[in-house]
Amino acid sequence: MYPFEGRAIVRTVKHVNVAGWLFVVLVTLLVETGVRVFDYGHSVATPSSTLRALYDALADGTLSGEIGFTLHAYLEGLALAILIGVTVGLLIGSSRTLLDASSIVIEFLRPIPAVALIPLAILFFGPFGIAAHRFVVVFAAVWPILINTIYGVRGGDRMLQDVARTSGVRRVGRLFHVTLPAALPSIATGIRVSAAIALVVCVTAEFRTHAGGIGAYMYDHQDANKLPELYAAVVLVSLLGLAVNVGLRAVQRRTLFWAGEERSAQ
Q1: Which of 81, 92, 80 is nearest to 179 (CA)?
Q2: What pTM did the predictor assign?
């Protein structure tokens, strides 16, 4: 084996959380044993039956369309939240006047649970389609991105701004070449937080509207008291969230390799 290949394998193993996956296996075995020993099968599906139901639903295509429906609303809503949160956050963070003027509105709207707006979204956009789901996803996901962008901009090194200003860089140029790069680590953290929140809210909206998606699949099987299928949908949502987080983490490692956290991880 060549030294380069050996180093590549070592890096891959480091990126795989072996201890974490072993702990998952241990917890799964304990739950399986507990459900069978204490006879909780009437209210809790065993992990083995859950995984079997998940495999069957994916194999026969039952969940394929539901996954596509959920991802459609989820990814569109998250993309809109990133666009709005980063753009507005850059503008507010770059101006003390805008920050003071908008702070009351932001702190008033931010604590509102997105799920509380589901009836309002249904009223405006209708119960069918993805418009209502997309609306609540955007509302839920935009706040961590917005707040992290504002604080990333406000917490930037002022010396870099002074150097750029004395070098003749105009305000717009400083915004894109100094302010934005300095705020990227904070923005990336906000996006990762929002990605998890957006998925939860999206599935909750589907569960409430029954218009389609994994949430509607969960509602139908809860109503039919099919526990393995219900728990299979829950596991599927967890796996989607894990995959999104791993993907965002990989992008962050590659694009923000110069940031302190990522540099220390390499």
Answers
A1: 92
A2: 0.84
